[in-house]
Amino acid sequence: MVVAASLPADAASLSLAEMKRAKPAPDFTLPDLDGAPHTLSAYRGRVVMVNFWATWCPPYRKEIPSMQRAWEFLKDQGVIMLAVHVGGDVDDVAQFTYDYAVEFPVLMDRDSKVINAWPVRGLPTTIIVDKNGVMALQAIGGREWDDPAILERLLQLQRN
Q1: pTM, whole model, 2 decimals?
Q2: How far from each other are the two terminal CA atoms of the chain, in whole angstroms?
Q3: For burial by CB atoms within 10 Å, which of 70, 78, 94, 132 has the most?
Q4: How far is CA 150 from CA 13, 32, 74, 80, 94, in A?
Q5: pLDDT band for position 58 (cuts 50, 70, 90)
Q6: Can you give the CATH number for the domain in which 30 is found?
């Protein structure tokens, strides 16, 4: 069972934690809101931020504007951002992303197979996959993704 994860308001800009056991990220292919497939392994050689979320998740509603600002900065730096919506209806998710002016890829994990293969216990959870396809960093609960320390950490991974 996946539950909503939250942090105290003053902890919302916490940095990213090292994964306790770095291991290869489970590969997946999921459709975006237009039906185009995205395969994680196709992004090998680039850092990929995989954010698991749901429209009903209050912490995600709070963090999504900062994710969009981070995407506007990171997309030209070679970092990929994939928001994996767990369950739900495509039309509802599309309306949600329209309301929040989301421009980064939003993928649909309708049957929860992908989230169940990843070390996710609450939403939102973000796992950073390094250029070699290894789960390197994680954030459980919301973050301010455009925080300079977080952006620099992602760019360091991309440069290494």
Answers
A1: 0.90
A2: 36
A3: 70
A4: 8, 25, 11, 14, 27
A5: confident
A6: 3.40.30.10
**Residue 82 belongs to what domain range?**
3-159
**Cα-to-chain-centroid distance, residue 59:** 13
Taking the C-alpha atoms of residue 96 and residue 59, their distance in angstroms, rounded to an integer, is 14
H helix intervals, 17-82: 58-74
Nearest to 47 by CA among 151, 130, 159: 130
Q: How many domains does the chain have?
A: 1
Across-strand partners of 109?
86
SS3 state of residue 121: coil
| Bridging pattern class, strands 17-18 and 29-31 | unpaired
Residues 79 and 93: their CA atoms lie apart, in Å, by 23
Q: How far is CA 130 from CA 25, 37, 91, in A?
A: 9, 21, 32
Both tokens of 7, joined, read 């942090």
